[in-house]
């Protein structure tokens, strides 16, 4: 029967395959240094008066690459076709009602056209008849 070697001896005897990195002991703490706050945004000092800040190479590409698709998306959503169900349902209902011959038509009459004062007076009398008070009960 073969002798069993302790597990620790197996661990130390193994070598990593070529091209495979071995994982060393890790410690908490994050490593690296600490950048103390300087009070300047992104750690950049403002340029002297009368001079402009020199943009980095990636900034123009970033702005065009972010703003242009956003503007195109908003324009596409606003100017694109209406894909909601309501316009289709309204047209379908009007078509079916006209086929049956009972399409309602609004014809303004003198009774339908009232001034704001007349409307308020009618509302106040309606509310008082329902027992909800008159003026100021809104």
UniProtKB/TrEMBL annotation:
GO terms for cellular component: mitochondrial inner membrane. It is found in: Mitochondrion inner membrane. Residues 90-103 have a biased composition (Basic and acidic residues). Its main location: mitochondrion. It is a single-pass membrane protein. It comes from the Eukaryota. Keywords: Electron transport, Membrane, Mitochondrion, Mitochondrion inner membrane, Respiratory chain, Transit peptide, Transmembrane, Transmembrane helix, Transport, Ubiquinone. Coiled coil: none annotated. InterPro entries: NADH_UbQ_OxRdtase_ESSS_su. The keyword Transmembrane helix applies. Residues 22-54, 90-109, 117-138 are annotated as: Disordered. Complex I is composed of 45 different subunits. Interacts with BCAP31. Accessory subunit of the mitochondrial membrane respiratory chain NADH dehydrogenase (Complex I), that is believed not to be involved in catalysis. Complex I functions in the transfer of electrons from NADH to the respiratory chain. The immediate electron acceptor for the enzyme is believed to be ubiquinone. Belongs to the complex I NDUFB11 subunit family. This is NADH dehydrogenase [ubiquinone] 1 beta subcomplex subunit 11, mitochondrial. The lineage of its organism: Eukaryota, Fungi, Dikarya, Basidiomycota, Agaricomycotina.
């Amino acid at each position: 029967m073969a002798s069993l070697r302790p597990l620790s001896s197996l661990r130390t005897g193994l070598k990593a395959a070529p091209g495979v990195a071995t994982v060393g002991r890790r410690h908490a703490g994050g490593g690296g240094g600490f950048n103390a706050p300087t009070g300047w945004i992104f750690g950049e000092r403002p340029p002297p008066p009368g001079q402009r800040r020199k943009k980095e190479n990636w900034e123009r590409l970033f702005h065009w690459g972010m703003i242009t698709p956003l503007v195109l998306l908003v324009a596409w959503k606003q100017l694109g076709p209406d894909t909601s169900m309501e316009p289709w349902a309204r047209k379908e209902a009007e078509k079916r009602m006209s086929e049956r011959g009972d399409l309602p038509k609004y014809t303004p009459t003198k009774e339908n056209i009232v001034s704001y004062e007349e409307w308020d007076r009618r509302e106040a009398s309606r509310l008082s008849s329902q027992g909800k008070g008159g003026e100021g009960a809104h």
